[in-house]
Amino acid sequence: ETGVTQSPTHLIKTRGQQVTLRCSSQSGHNTVSWYQQALGQGPQFIFQYYREEENGRGNFPPRFSGLQFPNYSSELNVNALELDDSALYLCASSLETGGRSPLHFGNGTRLTVT
Amino acid sequence: GDSVTQMEGPVTLSEEAFLTINCTYTATGYPSLFWYVQYPGEGLQLLLKATKADDKGSNKGFEATYRKETTSFHLEKGSVQVSDSAVYFCALSDGAGGTSYGKLTFGQGTILTVHP
Fold this sequence. Notes:
The complex is a heterodimer of chains A (114) and B (116). By secondary structure, chain A is mainly beta. Chain A has strands at 5-7, 10-13, 19-24, 31-37, 44-50, 53-57, 64-68, 74-78, 87-94, 104-105, 109-113. Chain A is globular, with a radius of gyration of 13 Å. The termini of chain A are far apart. Chain B is mainly beta and 116 residues long. Chain B has no helices and 12 strands. In chain B, the strands form 3 sheets. In chain B, strands 2, 5, 6, 10, 11 and 12 form a 6-stranded mixed sheet that branches. A 4-stranded antiparallel sheet of chain B has the order 3-9-8-7, with no helix packed on it. In chain B, a hairpin with a 2-residue loop joins strand 7 (56-59) and strand 8 (62-65). The N and C termini of chain B lie far apart (41 Å). The chains are: A mainly beta (114), B mainly beta (116). At the A-B interface, strand 5, strand 9 and strand 10 of A face strand 5, strand 6, strand 10 and strand 11 of B.
């Protein structure tokens, strides 16, 4: 069983640039969620995708956007990067969209904005 | 809104000591509760879960009981090992099926270091 994989593992961008992060969900999982984890903090929910539709969003501005593809893989796009966007971005997949199904996390993408 | 509060760390213990990490929550409805563990350089791994009041989640010697009356989900282990050194996160999910999307709300994390 293949777990959740994310790419790239590390990324350095300049303020104002745009970035795309990628996630392959665990086999059989149709729901993907994205989280932002600032240094020393717990992860914060960005949004969730279920069957290619956004299915819930946290308190993040519209410059954070996403996609889910027919194979359930997903992308997180961030436009107009700010210094505070520097964080570990975690992708998680699950079997269903409700809260009973545990999330399976990838190892994350470390984004540094300079 | 929903929130999770964990005891502040870091926590430093000797091998074979007893571990408690406190976690309390605020939520409407009937959330599911989780403990996740994060080892250095890795993502989060589910450690245990409980989906209703009085349920006890357990895994790898760790236990936590869903206490609705005290809104708590404290993590315990009777005898810690060096390999348990990691960051531990308490979390709740607002999902109960239906139209809810089950987002996780995390606590701030507790760093545990176990010395030989």
